[in-house]
Amino acid sequence: IRDYGEVKIKLFPEETPTGVENFTTLVRNGYYDELIFHRVVQDFVIQSGDPKGNGTGGDDCWGTGGFVQTISPKLCHVTGAVAYATATDKLNNSQFYIVTGSEVTEDQFSFLAQQYGKTFSSSVKDLYFTWGGQPYLDNDYEIFGQVFDGLEICLEIQNVSVDSNNKPKSQVVIEKAVVEPYDGSEISWLSWQGKTPENDTSGEEG
């Protein structure tokens, strides 16, 4: 059994309060303990949160079968972003993904504008140019956190051998998930207008 290490995520209750409440409640209830990463796609995402381990299961902390997305314009799918994975019903439950991302070019932004009408500010473009990510996911999935420590572990997990369903051939397991106060560590990707990592220390750590 391989110990990949610890991944720390800053959560954004001020932007996605319901999503953060759901995630932290599930964490405190031990929901994520011993769950696997059931979907791993290199240069895209690593996904977990399904007790069935096949992408068809999961529930929210209220047992309602899913809750409506809250999509913040201040958050984007740069590498390390944490967001809820949804089916065609677009309801959030326990499943989430971490963006491992890839290089982003101006041509990609032009394509997204032409094909899907998606536009991006120059500051958000600069974040993607610097850190990579998956901009085409923006505005379609609820981002509620960002990895600020241990991103290299996520990037390592994305390289595991997978089967035809993108499921790791050797299980990658969340040993234990906990919620702690955010320690103020710098996050260098924030797209918040008028805010910088140095003066924004709100949120919780997952």
Structure description:
The protein has 206 residues and is an alpha+beta fold. 19% of the residues lie in helices and 17% in strands. The protein starts with 7 loop residues before the first strand and ends with a strand. The model is unreliable at 191-204 (pLDDT under 50).
Please give a quick description of this structure.
This protein is of the alpha+beta class.
Provide mean pLDDT, rounded: 90
Terminal-residue CA separation: 23 Å
Which band does the percent of strand residues land in?
A: 15-25%
What are the segments in which pLDDT stays under 50 over at least 5 consecutive residues?
A: 191-204
Descriptive labels:
8-stranded antiparallel β-sheet, globular, 19% helix, 17% strand, 206 residues, alpha+beta, 4 helices, 10 strands
Question: How are the elements arranged and paired?
Answer:
Blueprint: E1 8-11, H1 17-28, E2 39-41, E3 45-48, E4 67-68, E5 81-84, E6 91-92, E7 96-99, H2 106-116, H3 122-131, E8 143-149, H4 151-157, E9 180-181, E10 204-205
Antiparallel strand pairs: 1-8, 1-10, 2-3, 3-7, 4-6, 5-7, 5-8, 9-10
